[in-house]
Amino acid sequence: MDSDAFVFKDVKLTKDRTPDGHRIGYRFVRLIGQGASSRVYLAERFSDRTTMVLKIIDVATIKEPQALQRFVQEAELVSELDSPYVVHFLEHGFTKNYGYIAMEFFTRGDLKQRIEHGVSIQDAINYIRHIGFGLSAIHAHGIVHRDLKPGNIMFRSDDSLALADFGISKRLDETGELTKLGSVLGTPNYISPEQALGNDIDHRSDLYSAGVVFFEMLTGRKPFKAETAPALVYQHVHAPIPQLPNPVHNYQPIIDMLLAKDPDDRFASAEEFVSSLEAVARASHTLT
Fold first, then answer.
1. The overall pTM is greater than 0.85
2. Rg (CA), the chain
3. What residues are labeled active site?
4. pLDDT tens across 55-80, in order?
């Protein structure tokens, strides 16, 4: 590939301009991810040479208007958040044919990679506690993440953790076609029963997803497995909550609350979850 340009839907993306020739204050370094209508680049800000992530969406070729709405919504949602446990937003904007979002770059990868290599009990407690802090921050702004999973939990150079990727998040007071379209979006392994069924959701749906992540960190495996997405969804809705092995069985009450099928049976808030987690962790001498 030409070192001075990248291909973006058959259009040359030069190092300092979007495909339609607009300079937006960043130098594109390399492509690090892509979706149906968007690309994610490692970039460098001209003003201070800070490395960051630049997400670009091709407005001109979007076939579904909702995709553009979700992109704009992501920028608006993240711009309101100011928490050390949530991705830092820098700016967003549009050129004639492209939209872009600039966000902080995470140098130490994601939680998915760490789980694959094994997470200690103490680290699992620390990570899920900080995830709880992140959920508390977004829920305070009336935002539901709706796609909480290890791949969306990132680590900075100082090893601090932050929630990222708000592409299908929504406000609790949001209505309209975008909400309806997104109501069953999510990742099957981590989706809550109510979200999987397309029912109304609130912040407790994120707590269910956090429960799946916590179980996976403690055991090295997901609580439910199936050959197909529908079969996996069925388990989330109907299968009994699995039991933790003896070394971490003292956290079973936390798992039982997080993975309750009925949202009313879960923790009422992320703060309540963190408080209960800390109580069990202190009793188990695993809280750092």
1. no
2. 20
3. 147
4. 888 777 676 667 667 777 767 777 77
